[in-house]
Specification:
- This protein is an alpha/beta fold.
- 36% of the residues lie in helices and 10% in strands.
- It has a domain of 114 residues.
- It has 17 helices and eleven strands.
- The protein has an eight-stranded parallel β-sheet with strand order 1-8-7-6-5-4-3-2.
- Helix 9 packs across helix 13.
């Protein structure tokens, strides 16, 4: 038996972080189950097999964790044909929980061809059918196929998917919702995704879409909520929405128990969402669960960035830090542990081991010697092969889950991030006010408490870098998802040298 760090057991009553699994990582776990995709000689000696990197395997995984997200935009949607690359998701332990995103981002970016505001478009019709069947086949929860409202603000995106206005996005989403409601089957529960680029749009969207969760109006109603757009990054709006949900009878025990926040990565939000979950459980729905996801561990690795430290000091900015890590062919015969090497050679000033990295030698990551050629017969500039990426992704996933759980543990001990405490009067910290909001049990009183403390909500910056009721017009902007030791890198601006290592992979 391997020594495990059981992250499922450590979760307690915190809001749940869902790693947004990359298809690249899933393929390494899945393929190894059927064919020796990675030769045993390439596996680090201290790691028994590829399943040790699979957190959804409670028996063999180095850090068992039962929750994840997988996007239809990355998946093979045809469940009629076996696909080893999908095995980590399709044939996972039955006690794990998988949230299946519907691929609205792929629609907005034109990856899935179709005129989505034209309800006779055959390509869009075929894609709807494939996504819904895939969700019903693999997911515990699935999200409705929403059209993000930022789509029509991006001229290129509008042209690619045929969404040219807010009305187009709304109407296309309503059509998709009707399709989901009419054609869903099986045990998969469906989350009603709320969009809107500002408060006015978000309120209007909610008014139009809320009936899909109403059991008095639909026998086949949806089972919870997905928070997108301004809803996922603005505390003022989140609290207001929850108050309305409760008093509209749309957050009922056993009926609407789950709410997911899309693309949420800040550690301050990890504890904020725990506060909200606990307050709603205490005063409204004891089964209420909040989850949130991001792809940061995978995107960071694709940029050559490795998580190395977690910072949760009292009254400070909380973060997980990352930086470029070891990539040098001189390490190909170096038997030092990965941690010892990166610290001794001053690659990282500090480095926190994961259950994966503590089993690695530096040579397990920097595998190519000078003169070595990769699987496609080229000598590249990088010392990494594609499996190096998988190892580093696994490390980053553990670090992100650990950061979220550690932040919650520290918060419960009275250690707070700066943005969660009032700068002048500590009596009005976010946790106490959030509890007051839901303890009021009266719609107007709860909304008045939210408005009264708007200064607190404005301090709690969301992923997009803005929050608060005063934000009535929000345009997409680049905002750091994490703290870098080096200059920030756009997620799509991948290092050309690193890409060489991925050319022979999926």
């Amino acid at each position: 038996m391997i020594e495990q760090d059981n992250l499922t057991a450590k979760q307690q009553d915190y809001a749940i972080f869902l790693p947004a699994i990359s298809s690249f990582y899933a393929s390494y776990v899945g393929r190894q189950r059927t064919t020796p995709y990675v030769e045993q000689s390439r596996m680090p000696p201290a790691m028994p097999d590829m399943e040790s990197m699979n957190w959804l395997n409670p028996q063999q995984g180095l850090f068992p964790y039962r929750w994840s997200l997988y996007s239809a935009g990355h998946a093979n949607l045809d469940l009629n044909k076996p696909d080893p690359k999908e095995d980590m998701v399709r044939n996972r332990d039955p006690n794990t929980i998988m949230l299946a995103d519907s691929g609205g981002f792929q629609i907005a970016k034109g990856v899935w061809p179709g005129r989505w505001a034209d309800f006779t478009d055959k390509k869009a019709e075929a894609q709807r059918e494939k996504v819904l069947k895939w969700q019903m086949g693999i997911a515990t929860y699935g999200m409705t196929m929403d059209i993000p409202t930022w789509t029509f603000r991006d001229p290129e995106a509008s042209k690619l998917c045929g969404i040219f206005s807010y009305e187009d996005a709304v109407n296309a989403t309503r059509y998709n919702n009707e399709y989901w409601m009419a054609n869903r089957y099986g045990e998969t529960k469906i989350l009603n995704v709320l969009q809107g680029g500002n408060h006015a749009e978000a309120d209007h969207w909610y008014d139009l879409m809320k009936d899909y969760c109403d059991p008095t109006k639909h026998k086949n109603h949806f089972n919870g909520w997905g928070m997108g757009g301004q809803n996922m990054c603005d505390v003022h709006l989140v609290l207001k929405r929850l108050v309305h949900l409760i008093h509209d009878g749309l957050l009922e025990k056993g009926c609407h128990d789950w709410m997911h926040f899309l693309g949420t990565s800040k550690l301050e939000w990890a504890v904020l969402l725990t506060d909200i979950q606990r307050a709603v459980r205490k005063h409204a729905n004891p089964n209420f669960t909040i989850s949130f996801d991001c792809a940061s561990p995978f995107l960071a690795t694709a940029n050559g960035q490795l998580y190395h430290s977690i910072y949760t000091d009292n009254r400070s900015k909380w973060s997980y830090q990352m930086a470029p890590t070891a990539d040098d062919k001189k390490y190909a015969l170096d038997n030092r542990s990965f941690r010892d090497a990166v610290l001794a050679d001053d690659i990282h000033k500090s480095f926190e081991d994961s259950p994966i990295s503590q089993r690695l030698r530096i040579r397990d990551v920097c595998v190519y010697k000078p003169g070595d050629v990769n699987k496609i017969g080229k000598e590249g500039r990088t010392s990494w092969d594609s499996f190096s990426y998988a190892l580093m992704m696994g490390h980053n996933v553990w670090m992100h889950i650990e950061a979220v759980q550690r932040a919650n543990r520290m918060y419960d001990q009275g250690i707070c991030p700066d943005m969660m405490v009032h700068p002048i009067d500590p009596v009005y910290d976010a946790r106490r006010v959030i509890d007051r909001v839901f303890a009021a049990r009266d719609r107007s009183k709860s909304l008045a408490i939210i408005d009264e403390h708007s200064k607190i909500w404005e301090r709690i910056v969301g992923t997009r870098g803005f929050t608060g009721k005063r934000v009535w017009s929000a345009t997409p902007m680049f905002n750091s998802l994490f703290d870098f030791d080096q200059p920030q890198i756009e997620e799509v601006d991948l290092d050309p040298a690193k890409l060489e290592a991925l050319e022979d992979s999926v």
